[in-house]
Amino acid sequence: MNNFTFYSPTYFVFGKGKETEAGHYVKRFGGTKVLLHYGGGSVVRSGLLDRVKKSLEEEGLSYLELGGVKPNPRSGLVYEGIELCKKNNIDFVLALGGGSTIDSAKAIAAGAKYEGDYWDFYVGTPIKDALKVGTILTIAAAGSEGSGDTVITQEDGMLKRGAGSECLRPAFSILNPELTQTLPSFQTACGSADIMAHVFERYFTNTQDVEITDRLCESILLTMIKEVPKALKNPNDYEARANIMWAGMVAHNNIVGVGREQDWASHDIEHELSALYDCAHGAGLAVIFPAWMKYVMHHDISRFAQVAVRVWGCNMDFAHPEVTAAEGIERFKNFLTSIGLPVNFKELGADAKDIPALVEKLGLGESGTVGNFVKLTSKDVEQIYRIATE
Ligand code: NZQ
Ligand code: ZN
Question: N or C end of the chain: smaller count of CB under 10 Å?
């Protein structure tokens, strides 16, 4: 196991009806004037926005609102949010929604404490300070409720890029599984693929002797395989929703990734798909991850065979472990299909003729690489996109 530090200071409030305590937690973490940030309207329709406003009013907290975050959140709205915060002395950004809204809130929080153009953060400038952020999560997926990461799409050129800082970890996150019961099945499935992908990005590692985090990763995957079909069959299954919601948090706050090299090539390769086609991130991952697995499998057959046996229930073929490894990938792909996700370019609505443009936008050039398990060049990435068309 590698040396590591792990600091995950977010205060989690989990359970039914907990959003009515939002005002209490904003106050507890020092907020006095709040920006309420949300997406395209699901929080209005569900009544969540009204419940949260009432809770803030009960605590005597003033607030402004900025809705309209789109999935794959755009840079333009972030500028608007920063302006609002600076002009009105906002000191707390409260995100109501999924990863897109939370990421947009984090960008606003960092930009509000910065004199320059906040896009600098997404091209390498470190984030040193930010307003406090709180979240009320409505979809189990990105894990942004427990992470210090934010992903924004620059509208000029549709470049989707990430940034991260410890200061962006939310001060608190309210997780009420009931709020996820209004999700369309497709969004539940997309979120689930993202959660599983966050585990795989950590699971496929060159670091040896990481039994504890291997086993934690496997337990999240097994939980998803059991609970996601239940939530799809009965969207109001609170216990299934609760298990998936907490799985989404632990899959990405890095408790299962510490002490080991992580990969993240599939995420970067996917981000080009969601930037170009504006598809759901989880749907893009369902197309890319099995293709990536097929391409890199031979780098460490025993690790792929291990997950096939421990997670996908395959029998170990000791004479031909590559057969077991390949069967595990096939079962993963079948699982994604069974929950209603696309698993190739055609099903996603992507076009093979765009592959050169996707590779180009990833920006690896002649000598750059992406990922760690196997360091992939532009040529490798092109092959992975090609496998994803099958
Ligand atoms: O905008 P509204 O009306 O709220 O509708 C949303 C949106 O259309 C809807 N939705 C959310 N909760 C709902 C609901 N509809 C009905 N009932 C509910 N309870 O679902 C749609 C998708 O929402 P979005 O926030 O985009 O989903 P998700 O949480 O999957 O976030 C995706 C974004 O997160 C980024 C992705 O790249 C993508 O941009 N990621 C962020 C990460 C991070 N910050 O740590 C890591 C991830 O790997 C990921 O890259
Ligand atoms: Zn993701």
Answer: C
Q: Which residues, including other chains, have CB under 8 Å from residue 336's CB and lie 6 or more apart?
A: 193, 286, 290, 343
Residue-range domains of the chain with CATH:
11-179 (3.40.50.1970), 185-387 (1.20.1090.10)
pTM score, two decimals? 0.98
Average predicted confidence (pLDDT) for the chain: 98
Sheet holding 62-66, edge to edge: 11-14, 172-175, 132-137, 92-97, 33-38, 62-66
Ligand 1: atom nearest CA of 190 is 30
CA dihedral 249, 253, 257, 258 (to 10 degrees): -140
Q: What is the pLDDT of residues 212-263, one digit of tens each?
A: 999 999 999 999 999 999 999 999 999 999 999 999 999 999 999 999 999 9
Q: Which amino acid is at 38?
A: Y
